[in-house]
Design a protein that fits this description.
This protein has three helices and no strands. 69% of the residues lie in helices and 0% in strands. The protein is mainly α. The relative contact order is 0.25. Helix 1 runs antiparallel to helix 2.
């Protein structure tokens, strides 16, 4: 897996992921949607930690600075 998620993108993903996780746990969202929010939040946090996004790879997007 070649990294395709850059620094600013990683920060945005962590913040959005944590917000979605907290919303799923504490915001009182109706039953099916809280699981969707927690799942999306977990995916955002995971992709930011490994610096790889499968959707970016499919669409040919790369926010990593070139070395």
């Amino acid at each position: 897996m070649k990294a395709n998620v850059g620094g600013l993108d990683r920060i945005v993903r962590v913040v959005a992921g944590l917000a979605l996780l907290l919303a799923g746990f504490m915001a009182g969202i109706a039953a099916p949607w809280n699981y969707v929010a927690m799942g999306a939040g977990a995916v955002f946090v995971l992709t930011s930690m490994v610096s790889f996004c499968p959707l970016y790879a499919i669409f040919g997007i790369n926010s990593c600075p070139t070395k």
